[in-house]
Amino acid sequence: MRKFDWDALQAFLAIARAGRLTIAAQQMGVDHSTLSRRVASLEASIGVQLFERSSVGFLLTPEGERLMTDAEAMESLAMRINARLDDPSGGLTGTVRVGTPEGFGTYFLAPRLARLTAAHPDLEIELVANPRMFSLSKREADIAVTMTRPTRGRVYAHRLNDYALGVFASRQYVDSHAPINTFQDIFKHRWIGYIDDLMWSTELDYLSQISTALMPTVRISNVISQAAAVSGGAGIGVLPCFIARNEPALVRILPDEIALSRSYWLVSHADTRDIARVKLLTDFIRTECGNSEAFWNRWP
After folding, report:
1. What CATH topology corresponds to 90-161+263-297?
2. For the whole prediction, is pTM greater than 0.85?
3. Residue 167: is it exposed, middle or buried by C-beta count within 10 angstroms (0-12/13-18/19+)?
């Protein structure tokens, strides 16, 4: 009878998700040669090749793709069993990773984590506030905040809140450039926006919503750096009001004529959403957003 162990299956999952042996080894905290041996042992035990090794990394074979589904199901079951084994008398323990857009994570969630850590000192929280999408099925995060509702995957999505955006410029820029009194005046100015091929969500395409004729001359990959560039006088740009409030040099341009809005969604995976520490953080984020309606739309 062919057998394989759980360590080998975890090694398989890590390499399949990372695509590279060295990265997967770092994530698992083991030597890359150990990880390689585990996968080789797994392939030998089940009698199939799971990866195509190439210069660009490890690619799943058709047999590897089929094993991936079962391996993730086993991983989810193991996570639920481990969660039940936690000692409830000792309080919540373990690690929860939440992936968010950089603005949400930096300006909203991070300042509020103190209340959560004070109530649950043994809980470890990993906040990944990056301009990107997070794959819950690949375990890149336990919880994700997104700008759109997911349409695929075994996930649950809850609409957190809407937030307002406007066009901003620094006071110095406004005082030293042509006045902006009408909508047509905006076409005489330099704009700051996103780099097209690094725009991780179509919801970030603000300028085309204002006018398809607008083209940024300064392109920046994340909103925090965009806010700094606008504040420094590099041009005018669209910013969420909850971020722009933190830049005292900014003034809002044509607020009655140009007003945009977007939404945040809270997403959790079906296999892990009921784990106590994951549920705690999702409930915390939902409650904090529900209690902070004015935060998202107020200007200044």
Report:
1. D-Maltodextrin-Binding Protein; domain 2 (3.40.190)
2. no
3. buried
- Residue 65 sits at the vertex; the CA angle it makes with 200 and 147, to the nearest 5 degrees, is 20
Q: For 50-86, how does the pLDDT look when each residue is reduced to its tens digit (9 = 90+)?
A: 999 888 889 999 999 989 888 877 877 777 676 665 5
Amino acid letter, residue 288: E
What is the C-alpha to C-alpha distance for residues 12 and 46, in angstroms, rounded to an integer?
13
In this predicted model, what pLDDT tens digit does every residue of 98-108 receive, in sequence order?
Answer: 999 999 999 99
Three-class SS string for 118-159? HHCCCEEEEEEECCCCCCCCCCCCCEEEECCCCCCCCEEEEE
Rounded to whole angstroms, how far apart are CA atoms 34 and 183? 62
pLDDT tens figures, 256-299: 999 999 999 999 988 888 888 899 999 999 999 999 989 999 99
Asked if 120 and 113 count as a contact pair (C-beta separation under 8 A), the reply is: no
Under 8 Å between Cβ of 260 and 206 = yes
Q: Select from 136, 160, 165, 129 the least CA-distant residue to 147.
A: 160
- The three-class DSSP label of residue 233 is coil
CA atoms within 13 A on the CB side of 89: 0
Pick the CATH number of 164-260 from 3.40.50.980, 3.40.50.150, 3.40.190.10, 3.30.9.10: 3.40.190.10
Q: What are phi and psi of 33, to 5 degrees?
A: -70, -35
Give 195-202 contacts, CB < 8 A, sequence gap 24+: 195/219, 195/220, 195/221, 198/131, 200/131, 200/132, 200/133, 201/133, 201/146, 201/147, 201/148, 202/148
